[in-house]
Structures are given as structure tokens and as C-alpha cells.
């Protein structure tokens, strides 16, 4: 028997022993001719992972070693102090874990009480969870110890700063400290001057430090796909409508054509950064979708161009008597429907226009309809059953997110019951239940081109699906905690995710491999992400009350917009990409000048050795709108750049 096969069998035997499948275990041992392995099977697999923490050193030296390290950092020159200070937190965590593993509980408690509170504020929640582990048998299963034992903490550091650290460690001769740094820390070296305090703080805060520069070197296609020639289709449609009109206003038609050219000229240009059209197979447009596209472009001709001197009008929808029952809200792309998810597993859909929600006629009635008439789709719907709202039932837990297709024919929903459901908005029934996630599903989003959708879950994964398959096409694994939010890139080639591990990641739908961008800088869990209309930038909002803007071309943090005083739950770009709107639990809506930010960024040279200087938000905030007592849960720009907001009323 080969060594590989033997190791595989031993791994299976360990699982069988853990779950007490005695008969199966004995049968496998007999068939594999491995009767004498009690010492292997009685060895706890989780202990083997923690063996690097085995130490026979004096437990009383840990506090002294850490104190000396802290004094060295504090006394260093400002040029290197801030990079050196980034090693204090991971060293503290691993020292504490090592003390607990070696049953030095009193010294571990002293270490936690003395040095825990002085760590950075954004690590305090992690430290509280770590402090719950006070005995060796509690280590397996604690998410912080599990994460730190299996991964290296990443610190980006200049060569000069690392030389100073090495020199100090040699002088100290502290084996405990040297072993921890060698075993559990990874230094991502770069040449040049060390970073200052602001630069270090900009990318700090993630569960396991910063991103390696290697993580963001893969070329990505952030450009937009070239759209079909809808202008020709619209021209033909317009001629059909006006061919019977005897009094055609020539000047009006010229103005109309000029307006069309300005709208379509932006959409039909080839983007040098766009992916090949066949890189990811996209579905063919159905007749209803094509009709909806043409309708959307007609609406775009009437769109208001926004800017500092022309801010959008805002329409706010308040949900009454729903503070502890509403869990999510979503508005359809054409602003005609709104879907609300509830904690009692219901989904309620309202019409936002005077038109009521109609249902497809029965099969018997559909037989009698002439398929050749122009209004066949209208005749298929039953006006007798039209209602202002509809309720969808099927989930067995709170509904956390909903997503409409572009043509409003389908709705996705995800729930605490670990499933995703696809609903028909013509029959108002559930078509498919997608099972695959192991835990509650927090978010789900359709691709801009339909057919594909992405979901994310408490199981630390994001998954890409197609509507016609019950199994995921891609499983994106790499986050170290819940994946709270996800969305598709406008070209449908990439998926962005935000997590409670305080990182934002970009994944390639084509390859399905490791992330192609890893972006750190948030100090709290990420609850909202949105791509810019041009596809190059990604904005993310967090419970650290900050909006970060990332340049996907290099994976750099380019702006940090701080003005909110509570968790940011919704971000939305205007249809022309000039305004970024943000809504938060502080009951404030803020409008940011994104076009000015892009102009400021276009003239800067990118330093690839480390993150460039991050722009602050006070230069880009245009206006703040406050509600009385209604925190925001979603925002939506209509095709004409009217801004819709949805929130819950909090009674005093």
C-alpha cells in the first residue's frame, strides 16, 4: 500500500472514530490490513495543529518579553515606529494562545488583562472572543484561535524596518518571541521609505493583517462589455410609431437624434479594458428582455445629468409598524416593484406604479389566445386577479435578501433556512429551491445580464449559480468569517464579496480559483458593496461608519469617506456615475461627488510598492439629508436619476 493511500485511510478512520461509527471503522481496518494503529487514532487531530505552540519555556518570561518589545517599538524613530507597531497585536495573540496551550492559565490571564485593552480598537472584539478561551480544551472551536493557528498574520514592511527588528531580536535573545515571529508572521517586504502612520492605518484592521502585494497583481478586465446596437433597433421602432404621423416635426426629430447619439455613444464604444465577449458565456436576450432594454434606453434619454449644482430629488418610502419584522428591501431595476423580506419568512411585493400586480391566466384560458397578435403578452395576464401587492410563502426562516431580474420576470430570495428560492412574478409561485450552503444565506444578487446569480453565507463561502441548475458552478472559499454581502461586476466576469473578516475580495467567475483582489482597510464587518458605473472602482460600507473606495486596476484603497455616525447599510451610484449615495443606521442620506474624485485620481501616479495616499471625504461630500427616525435599509436610482430610499420608522 502506498504512503498516500495509507494516509487517506488513516484520515477516514479518524473521522469514523470521531463520529463513533465502530462497525464501519473495524471493517475498514480489517480490509486495509491496518489493525495496529491505536496511537494514531487516539491522537486528537486538532491537537496536531496546535503543536507549534508546544513550549517548555518559563511562562513568567512572556510578559517581560512583550513589555520589552513594546518599549522597543515606542522608542523607535517615527520613520519606523508605525510599521513596527503592527507586530504587537499578532505577537500578543500568539503569546496568549501559547500560554493557554501549555496550561499556564494564570500567566495567560495576566497577559490578557495587562496588554489586551491597549491593542487597537478595531481588534477589541476579536480579543474579547479570544479571552473566552482560558483552558487548553477550549481552544478547538474558538474562531479566533482556529484562524490564527492555521494562517500567518501578514505585515507589509520596508526592508529597513525589518532590519531594525531583526537587530533588536538578536540583542534580546528572546527565543519565545523569535519562535512566534518565525512561525506565525509573514513579512511582505518592499523597497523604499517606511510608511507613515496614516498609510499604515489605511490598510490595517483585517482579521489577519494586510494583503500581500502578490494578491493584487493579476490582470483583471474591469471595463464594460460592448452593448448591441440598440440605437438601430430604437430608430426602427420610432419609425414604425411615426410612419402614420402626417405632421412630423423635423426639428424635433433632429434634437431627438442628437440626444440619442449622446446617450448611445457612451454605450457602444469598445473599452480597451473590457473582457472578450466570449470570456464568460452570457445568455441570449429574450424578446421581453430586448424590449425592456429598448425601454430603458428611451428612459435614459430623459435622464437628468447630476452634479454639484444639480443634486437628485429624493423620494423616501417609510415602512411603518415593521421595526423588528422587516429584514430587507429591494427595488426592481425599472422602479416598478418593491420586494420586502420579513423575519416571519414572508416576502411581500408591492407595485410602485398605478398598475396592479397581475397573474398569468390558467392553461385552459391561454389556449384561446391568438399568439400572432402584437399584445399577446398583455392578453396572457389575468386582470381579474390583479392586486396592489402579493405575498410569497416558502421559506422557513427570516428572509435576508431579494434580487429582481432586469425584466422583472423572476425574483431571488435567500433565508436563514440555508436555501435560495427562485420565484416567478407571473405565476407568483416558487420555481426552484437551491440547496448547497451549510448555514444561513445572507445575500443574493442576479448578474446584470441575468441567468447567473451569486450568494454568500455564514459558511464563509460565496457561490455562483445559474437559474437552470440546482448546483453551484463556482464556490469561492477564502474568507475567514461570514461573507455578508456580494454583488456582480457590471460585465458579469467578476464577483465582489465583503466579509466579517473585514476584507473585500474580488473573484474571477471564469476560473473560480483564489481571489484576484484582496483589499484591507475596513475596521469592521462589511455590509454594502457596489461597483461604479465604469466598472473600475468598488465602494464598500461597513459598521466602522466609513465608505472605502477601491481602484480595482491595482487593488489600492484610494478614498476613505467618513461622515456617517453608524453602520452603512446601503450604497448606490447614480445612473450617470457622477454621484455616490450612502444610507446608514444614523438616519442620514449622504451624497458624494464621485466625478470629482475620479478626476483627482486620474492625475496621480500609482506607487506600486505600497498603497498611495488615501483621499479623505470632506472634499467630496455634497449634501446630507436626514430623516426623523428612519434608518436606511436600501437606496435605488431610477433610470431618470431620481433617488429612492427605503427605511423603517423607529418610534420613540
From TrEMBL:
Q: Which GO terms describe its molecular function?
A: RNA polymerase II general transcription initiation factor activity
Q: Which PANTHER family match?
A: CANNONBALL-RELATED (PTHR19879:SF1), TRANSCRIPTION INITIATION FACTOR TFIID (PTHR19879)
**In terms of one coarse class, where is the protein primarily found?**
nucleus
PROSITE patterns assigned: WD_REPEATS_1 (PS00678), WD_REPEATS_2 (PS50082), WD_REPEATS_REGION (PS50294)
- Residue intervals passing through the bilayer: none
Protein name, UniProt field: Transcription initiation factor TFIID subunit 5
Checking Pfam families in the record gives: TFIID_NTD2 (PF04494), WD40 (PF00400)
* Keyword Repeat among UniProt keywords: yes
Under InterPro entries, the record lists:
TFIID_NTD2, TFIID_NTD2_sf, WD40/YVTN_repeat-like_dom_sf, WD40_PAC1, WD40_repeat_CS, WD40_repeat_dom_sf, WD40_rpt
* Taxonomy, superkingdom: Eukaryota
Amino acid at each position: 500500500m502506498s504512503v498516500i493511500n495509507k494516509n487517506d485511510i488513516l484520515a477516514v478512520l479518524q473521522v469514523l472514530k470521531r463520529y463513533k461509527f465502530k462497525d464501519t471503522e473495524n471493517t475498514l481496518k480489517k480490509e486495509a490490513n491496518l489493525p495496529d494503529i491505536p496511537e494514531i487514532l487516539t491522537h486528537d487531530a486538532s491537537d496536531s495543529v496546535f503543536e507549534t505552540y508546544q513550549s517548555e519555556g518559563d511562562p513568567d518570561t512572556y510578559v517581560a518579553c512583550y513589555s520589552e518589545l513594546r518599549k522597543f517599538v515606542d522608542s523607535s524613530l517615527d520613520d519606523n515606529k508605525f510599521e513596527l507597531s503592527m507586530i504587537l497585536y499578532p505577537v500578543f495573540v500568539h503569546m496568549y494562545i501559547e500560554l493557554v496551550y501549555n496550561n499556564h492559565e494564570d500567566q495567560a490571564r495576566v497577559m490578557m488583562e495587562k496588554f489586551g485593552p491597549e491593542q487597537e480598537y478595531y481588534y477589541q472584539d476579536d480579543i474579547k472572543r479570544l479571552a473566552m478561551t482560558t483552558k487548553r480544551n477550549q481552544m478547538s472551536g474558538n474562531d479566533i484561535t482556529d484562524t490564527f493557528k492555521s494562517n500567518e498574520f501578514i505585515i507589509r514592511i520596508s526592508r529597513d524596518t525589518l532590519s531594525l527588528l531583526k537587530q533588536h531580536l538578536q540583542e534580546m535573545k528572546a527565543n519565545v518571541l523569535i519562535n512566534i515571529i518565525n512561525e506565525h508572521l509573514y513579512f511582505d517586504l518592499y523597497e523604499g521609505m517606511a510608511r507613515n502612520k496614516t498609510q499604515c492605518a489605511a490598510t490595517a484592521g483585517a482579521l489577519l493583517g494586510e494583503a500581500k502585494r502578490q494578491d493584487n497583481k493579476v490582470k483583471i478586465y474591469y471595463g464594460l462589455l460592448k452593448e448591441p446596437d440598440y440605437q438601430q433597433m430604437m430608430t426602427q421602432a420610432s419609425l414604425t410609431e411615426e410612419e402614420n404621423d402626417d405632421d412630423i416635426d423635423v426639428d424635433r426629430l433632429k434634437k431627438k437624434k442628437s440626444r440619442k447619439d449622446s446617450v448611445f455613444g457612451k454605450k457602444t464604444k469598445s473599452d480597451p479594458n473590457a473582457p472578450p465577449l466570449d470570456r464568460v458565456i452570457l445568455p441570449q436576450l429574450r424578446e421581453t428582455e430586448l424590449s425592456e432594454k429598448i425601454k430603458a434606453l428611451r428612459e435614459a434619454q430623459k435622464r437628468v445629468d447630476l452634479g454639484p449644482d444639480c443634486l437628485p430629488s429624493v423620494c423616501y418610502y417609510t415602512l411603518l409598524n415593521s421595526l423588528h419584522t422587516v429584514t430587507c428591501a429591494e427595488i426592481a431595476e425599472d422602479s416598478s416593484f418593491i420586494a420586502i423580506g420579513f423575519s416571519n419568512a414572508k416576502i411581500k411585493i408591492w407595485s410602485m406604479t398605478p398598475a396592479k400586480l397581475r397573474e398569468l391566466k390558467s392553461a385552459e384560458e391561454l389556449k384561446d389566445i391568438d399568439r400572432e397578435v402584437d399584445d399577446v403578452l398583455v392578453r396572457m395576464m389575468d386582470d381579474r386577479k390583479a392586486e396592489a401587492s402579493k405575498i410569497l410563502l416558502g421559506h422557513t426562516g427570516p428572509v435576508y435578501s431579494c434580487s429582481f431580474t432586469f425584466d422583472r420576470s423572476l425574483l431571488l430570495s435567500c433565508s436563514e433556512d440555508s436555501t435560495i428560492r427562485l420565484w416567478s412574478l407571473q405565476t407568483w409561485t416558487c420555481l426552484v429551491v437551491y440547496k448547497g450552503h451549510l448555514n444561513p444565506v445572507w445575500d443574493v444578487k442576479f448578474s446584470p445580464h441575468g441567468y447567473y446569480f451569486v450568494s454568500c453565507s455564514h459558511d464563509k463561502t460565496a457561490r455562483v449559480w445559474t437559474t437552470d441548475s440546482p448546483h453551484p458552478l463556482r464556490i469561492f472559499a477564502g474568507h475567514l468569517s461570514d461573507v455578508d454581502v456580494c454583488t456582480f461586476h457590471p460585465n458579469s466576469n467578476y464577483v465582489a464579496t465583503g466579509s466579517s473578516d473585514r476584507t473585500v475580495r474580488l473573484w474571477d467567475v471564469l476560473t473560480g480559483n483564489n481571489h484576484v483582489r484582496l483589499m484591507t482597510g475596513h475596521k469592521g464587518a462589511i455590509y454594502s458593496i457596489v461597483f461604479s458605473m465604469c466598472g473600475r472602482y468598488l465602494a464598500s460600507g461597513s459598521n466602522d461608519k466609513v465608505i472605502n473606495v477601491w481602484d480595482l486596476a491595482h487593488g489600492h484603497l484610494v478614498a476613505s469617506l467618513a461622515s456617517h455616525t453608524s453602520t452603512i447599510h446601503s450604497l448606490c451610484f447614480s445612473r450617470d456615475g457622477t454621484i455616490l449615495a450612502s444610507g446608514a443606521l444614523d438616519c442620514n442620506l449622504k451624497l458624494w461627488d464621485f466625478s470629482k474624485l475620479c478626476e483627482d485620481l486620474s492625475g496621480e501616479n500609482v506607487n506600486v510598492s505600497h498603497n498611495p495616499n488615501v483621499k479623505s471625504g470632506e472634499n467630496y461630500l455634497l449634501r446630507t439629508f436626514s430623516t426623523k427616525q428612519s434608518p436606511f435599509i436600501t437606496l435605488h436610482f431610477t433610470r431618470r436619476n431620481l433617488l429612492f430610499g427605503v427605511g423603517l420608522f423607529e418610534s420613540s
